[in-house]
Amino acid sequence: MLVKSEDLLVGDDVGNVYYYAVEWPDAWEVDRSGWPGVMTLLARISVHSQQICGLAWSNDGSAFATGGNDNLCCLFKTSHVLQVNRMDDAVDQSTEDIFLGSDGVVQNININATRGRVKSVLPGAEKHRWVHGAAVKAISFCPWRQGLVATGGGSNDKCIHFFHTVSGACLATINVAAQVTSLIWSTTRREIAATFGYAQPDHPYRVAVFSWPECRQVAAIPWEGEHRALYAIPYPGGPNDGSRSRRGRVSSKIKQEGCIIVAASDESVKFHEVWGAGPKATAGGEGCLGGSDILEGMEGIDKEGDLIR
Q1: With contact defined as beta carbons under 8 Å apart, do 164 and 156 qualify?
Q2: CA distance between the termini of the chain
Q3: Portion of the chain with pLDDT greater than 70, in percent
């Protein structure tokens, strides 16, 4: 029986990443056969030495990146990780776990861990490893430029880094004076949005948009108070999807480009239409502090650009 399947990466507190194959039949298939699906552990990746903070797939699934509290971001080729390790022929193991389905019904789902098929991936198996100045939580592969990945460092790093996945070379770095908590590429523009946690020196911006490859800030969103942006995800729409323009038409700009949803430290969720204000002209000239308008603004350097409120 052919069923839907997906690959799943899970990180733990001690630095392991588990690579699962998840098979989940449709509801009618479950009713017919009584089989709720299965998760099969294919590989255990033990490259990091501390807690896993970030995980990201490339757009075609051929590679993935892991970020850890050990200040490392590691790039892996999926095909290499999935090569079967035939040196371990130990007895099969299988366990059961509780799975909460999307319909709210608690189901039992099998988790298989067949030792003879689980590959142990050790340090040195990664294609590239990039050292940062702090933990790496934010990782994002560019959807329109193959071989480009962006990473964000924590409070002691305070930078967005751009790497070439083929050669491993660092292409650019933007100093944002804050902990980078998430990165989201635009699918329609050559821009990337970043969210920020702790800032040092302190500044009010919690979301900013930068152009690529100029690495210029083209928009910034300040938040009131001391709340931090914890994480963000893209959303293919907006908070007012049903609203219509003066001509009675649903706004196509937000429908095409979507928005980002940000989880904040005040236990709120915020919708930001960072791509919805029309194309931005990037600020020209070299910044004396690495081209970061956030830093330059604190130094009293004014540059042209847009502020989204």
Answers
A1: no
A2: 52
A3: 72
Q: Which residues have CB under 8 Å from 217's CB, separation 6+?
A: 208, 209, 210, 283, 291, 292, 293, 294, 305
Question: Is the pLDDT confidence value at 114 over 90?
Answer: no
Provide the edge-to-edge strand list for the sheet that holds 229-235: 229-235, 259-264, 269-272
pLDDT computed for residue 108 by the predictor: 54
At residue 272 the predicted structure's pLDDT band, cuts being 50, 70 and 90, is very high
pLDDT at 95 over 50: no
Take residue 273 and report the two structure tokens written for it.
């239409």
127-144 pLDDT, tens digit per residue, is 999 999 999 999 999 999
3-state secondary structure 226-253: CCCEEEEEEECCCCCCCCECCCCCECHH
> What number of residues does the chain have?
309
Which distant-in-sequence residues (6+ apart) come within 8 Å of 30 by Cβ? 36, 37
CA distances from 296 to 210, 218, 274, 305 (A): 14, 13, 21, 12
Contact 109, 46 (CB under 8 A): no
- The residue that leads in pLDDT, 160 or 117, is 160
Q: Which helix (H) or strand (E) holds 111?
A: strand 106-113
- Residue 33's alpha-carbon distances to 4, 69, 95, 203, in angstroms, are 15, 43, 20, 57
The two three-digit tokens of residue 196, written as one number: 């920020």
